[in-house]
Amino acid sequence: MSSSENETDTSVERRDSVEKVVGAPSVASINEKGVIVDEQYADATIEFMREHDASVPEITPQEERRLRRKVMFTVQVLTFFINMVLYMDKATLSYASILDLWEHTGLTQDKYNNVNTIFYVGFLVGQIPGTWLVQKYPLSKVLFVLIFLWSILTFLFCTAYNYPGVVMLRFFLGLTEAPTIPILTTTNGMFMTRSERAATMPVFYAACMASPIPIGFIAYGVIYAKSTIPPYKILYIIIGGLTLILSVVIWFLYPDNPASCKLMSVKERVWTIRRVQNTQQASIEQKTFNKKHAIEALKDPISWIFFFFFLLQQLANNLPYQQTILFEELGNVTNLGSTLVTVASAGFAVAWAAMTCIVLAIFPNTSFLAIIYGQLPAWVGSIAAATLDIHNSIGMLAVICMAANVFGVSWICAFGLASATAGSSYTKRQVRNGMVLVGYSVSNMISPQLWQSKDAPRYIPAWIVQIVLSFTVAPALTSVAWYVLARRNRERKQLLEQAIQEDADHGYVKNESGQIIEVNKGALDMTDLEDKTFIYPL
């Protein structure tokens, strides 16, 4: 038992320390059932559920199927397209490199590496304010402001005429992107059950991997556009326009949480909250920062295992941005050919993500295994890229395509597990998300620097780092996390069975007037270490 578990917590009180209040259960009955949480530290949807829960009947199997489809085709599709457009914005620099950007701004291979690094400097700087914004303010408003600013920065690339200008714009792009992934993944977690969330995480990341398909064809059209405007500026205008339209959609449709979702009826909102709290054992949203939960996140060894996974695995993440340049350096590959091969590579990655989704749906609780096998094509492709004859253009194109995108499936599965294994605590989930994204940022600052012009055209040092650290050591670390959490689960199952027998799947919240109200246990916002009946998803 960690020392943090023994400390007195003002937000979580044992029932025997609670005074009896008017209209509340007796102290004795409370003592039999668990803990009391002050309302400010409980789920943000409690007031909505207090108003509507009693009037909404239990969901039927047929209604649940309809609700599941609605979530998938509204919330999931919305977050998918937001993620895809953002990744298109980020990847635009790679395509602009073959559309005269370098000639107009004075970029070279090493300067291009620096520009990619500076993006993640901004991403790293944005983690602390980003985590605070996500915890403090409505998700929809934060996301709207970020996407609107992103569109403005994308348009401003048309005005950049030198290397410092590109560096500055990339820094601010990274700064504004920092909170977006936690917002999107948090939203998905608010609407889906544990098994649905695990199975659809690769779909969410497939948005990133699919983005080269639309942007590839856009770039193909730009190559043949007859205009006095430099082609890279046309590309940035198109992508900036799409991002601006996206910000308008977010303003009108993006939900803060299920209780405020405009795409659902009141009944559907209640059913969604019930499903999530019952299956994820987690709160929906919590807007008060819990210092003790933040400290626990920093002390928990599982947090650091995920941190080092992202630190090592993301050393390979410059490869998707580097591949168009690698194709050019192979020789006999035109800009059009490079674009089409990149599109094919994205298609392969999307197919790999779809296969992973099917496996996770058929075999629940295998997310840790998906992290390991999800990297196999990248591992094989990287070894082949480092050993094949470079004059074997077709073979090199194929193995680079294998290596370039599919490891993102492991990335998103790990990101989902990092959050899902933190218990119901909103603060612990957000702090752990911040930790792993710091590792992600630092790794991506280093990653572009592995591709030095002096190592062209083979870039053997970069391939070796990816093979050893990103695709071998990093997934091995997750095996350690799996072992620790599986052992904890074995110890907790007896407690869980006892809780089910005693009907102790609920808890109590004390409001400002001192009244104690019975709620679903998931609304108590406890961490995995506080709630000894919490079972970790594996």
Automatic annotation (TrEMBL):
Pfam families registered for this protein in UniProt: MFS_1
Against PANTHER family, the record matches this protein to: HIGH AFFINITY CYSTEINE TRANSPORTER, PERMEASE-RELATED
Topology within the bilayer: Multi-pass membrane protein
Q: Where is this gene product found?
A: Membrane
> An example Gene Ontology cellular component term from the record?
membrane
Q: Which GO terms describe its molecular function?
A: cysteine transmembrane transporter activity
Q: Main location per UniProt?
A: membrane
Q: Which UniProt keywords apply?
A: Membrane, Transmembrane, Transmembrane helix, Transport
| TM ranges | 71-88, 142-163, 169-191, 203-222, 234-254, 336-363, 370-388, 394-422, 434-451, 463-485
Can you name this protein?
Answer: Yct1 protein
